[in-house]
UniProtKB/TrEMBL annotation:
Domain of life of the organism encoding this protein: Bacteria
Membrane-spanning residues: 416-433, 439-459, 466-485, 491-513
The protein's role, per its UniProt record: The transhydrogenation between NADH and NADP is coupled to respiration and ATP hydrolysis and functions as a proton pump across the membrane.
Species whose genome carries this gene: Rhizobium croatiense
EC number: 7.1.1.1
InterPro entries found in the cross-reference section: AlaDH/PNT_N, AlaDH/PNT_NAD(H)-bd, NAD(P)-bd_dom_sf, NADP_transhyd_a, NADP_transhyd_a_C
Location(s), subcellular: Cell inner membrane
Protein name: NAD(P) transhydrogenase subunit alpha
Chief location category: membrane
Single annotated GO MF: oxidoreductase activity
């Protein structure tokens, strides 16, 4: 079968769904590859690079659609592209079926199979195909770069001869993939970074990255996303009111706001309102990553950058991944390749649509002239629901006293039993063993007791506990072996010498390992 990738028709779209590297991997699966001339030019991939990878470069989209069995695209297909699909062909691209009902009906009428990369379920096995996360990661990073380009000041604080420069304060709303990428970039640039998410359990993750989590004084438990395929769920009106109140409190102190809140199939929730923008300092920046669905900010204009009356820049670009076309194309084409790999179980270049597979079923929105959207919930939840922990029963003082007494009686019985058994064994040995054996046996028992006390009393301040114990044992072995070297008899001397050598190797090795471990924590 032939996989073809046309040039994107949307104005300003620079990404491409196939790269020379991904084409090489697809050919290993038994496919032939073709691409429309100039499709990768804006992303930095020339036609010659594709030819060198064994890809056929065709002159027009008409020729590509006519010859290809599988069409790989980035953006949802346009009307002219839908008209070129036919029964038996497979389209793989972003599609957004919830927002494009008419386009979905047209896909049904063509009889083509449609796989929407934006519908890949967010389960662990599908992470390698999660194109939304790939693009969100780039968008979050690029959002901080765009903010810095419009901010006009340093991110990090500095003390110079000309005066002290305070660090920028950045607020990231939404700790999804895009939000975490923005947080990581902001922290690495030296800004004081705050982050908010409707899920308080992500606070630890935010703080581990060096940012500060913005907590709300609100008792309601938010949905964790397990029931919605790993995506955010709408908040209650009470939670939204508490959320906006908190944002109003901190708005005047924030220099850069990155909003990333978006729920699939819904308009973006309004989280950064006009009155919050009005309280921000002149020169501040708001970057709205939800601009394509109306934006999280009241002042956002999709695909435009505006400046508010009080001098705040509001950026509503919808093409952040496309502004880093080379990186975006590389990641997206890899997502496509992994999807096709799952669709080709026999690696023979033939698509097998296994609708029993959670990932394939979830991403397939049209199959053989039938609409298969929406998919059923995945059999594996995106987020494992935590089992409620039973609270330990609070004991009364009388119950605590009874439990302590029962524990004491049990320990006493065990100790007395062991003493009785040990005493009987000693009497049995003493009754039948010769006197010489008993003398050696008493020395052996005392040696075990003293050795135990000595070994377990060794301080491990410069060693791990295990290494300290093994070195202590080796030290006792050396002492015993040295005492036996002069005992007479070549066999005893040889065994003692071997014991000294082996124990010495263990001790020296222990110190060498310890030294290397300590060097790991020293600055060069």
């Amino acid at each position: 079968m032939l996989i073809g990738s046309p040039r994107e028709r949307l104005e300003g779209e620079a990404r491409v769904a196939m790269t020379p590297d991904s084409a090489t991997q697809l050919q290993k699966l038994g496919y032939q590859c073709a691409i429309e001339t100039g499709a990768g030019k804006l992303a930095g991939f020339s036609d010659d690079a594709f030819r060198a990878a064994g890809v056929t470069v065709v002159d027009s989209a008409e020729t590509l659609f006519a010859s290809a069995d599988v069409i790989a695209k980035v953006r949802p297909p346009e009307s002219s592209e839908m008209a070129r699909l036919s029964s038996g062909k497979t389209l793989i691209s972003f599609f957004y079926p919830a927002q494009n009902k008419d386009l979905l009906d047209r896909a049904k009428s063509t009889g083509a199979n449609v796989i929407a990369m934006d519908m890949v379920p967010r389960i662990s096995r599908a992470q390698k195909m999660d194109a939304l996360s790939s693009m969100a990661n780039i968008a979050g990073y690029r959002a901080l770069i765009e903010a810095g380009n419009n901010f006009g000041r340093f991110f990090t604080g500095q003390v110079t001869a000309a005066g002290k420069i305070p660090p920028a304060k950045v607020l990231v709303i939404g700790a999804g993939v895009a939000g975490l990428a923005a947080v990581g970039t902001s922290v690495s640039l030296g800004a004081i970074t705050y982050a908010f998410d409707v899920r308080p359990e992500v606070a630890e993750q935010i703080e581990s990255m060096g940012a500060e989590f913005v907590f709300l004084d609100f008792e309601e438990q938010q949905q964790d996303g397990a029931a919605t395929g790993g995506y955010a769920a709408p908040s209650s009106p009470e939670f939204r009111a508490a959320q906006l109140k908190k944002f109003r409190e901190i708005a005047a102190d924030i220099d850069i706001v990155i909003t990333t809140a978006l729920i699939p199939g819904r308009d973006a929730p309004k989280l950064w309102l006009a009155d919050m923008v009005a309280t921000m300092k002149p020169g501040s920046v708001v970057v709205d990553l939800a601009a394509e669905r109306g934006g999280n900010c009241d002042l956002t204009v999709p695909d435009q950058k505006i400046i508010s009356d009080n001098g705040v820049t509001v950026i509503g670009y919808t093409d952040f991944p496309s502004r880093m076309a080379a990186q975006s194309s590389t990641l997206y084409s890899t997502n496509i390749r992994h999807m096709i790999t799952d669709l080709t179980p026999n690696k023979d270049g033939v698509i097998v649509h296994n609708m029993e597979d959670d990932v394939i079923r979830g991403a397939t929105i049209a199959l053989k002239g039938e609409i298969t959207y929406p998919p059923p919930p995945p059999k594996i939840q995106a987020i494992a629901a935590q089992k409620p922990k039973e609270k330990p029963k609070e004991l009364t003082p009388e119950e605590k006293k009874a439990a302590e007494a029962a524990g004491f009686r049990s320990a006493t019985r065990n100790q007395v039993g062991l003493l009785i058994i040990g005493g009987l064994l000693m009497l049995l040995i003493g009754a039948f063993a010769p006197p010489v054996f008993m003398g050696h046996f008493i020395v052996f028992a005392l040696a075990c007791f003293v050795g135990f006390q000595v070994i377990w009393g060794v301080s491990h301040s410069l060693h791990t506990p295990l290494m300290a114990i093994t070195n202590a044992i080796s030290g006792i072995i050396i002492i015993g072996a040295v005492l036996q070297i002069t005992a007479g008899g070549w066999l005893v001397t040889a065994l003692a010498a071997i014991s000294v050598a082996i124990a010495a190797i263990n001790i020296v090795g222990g110190f060498m390992v310890t030294r290397r471990m300590l060097n790991m924590f020293q600055k060069s």
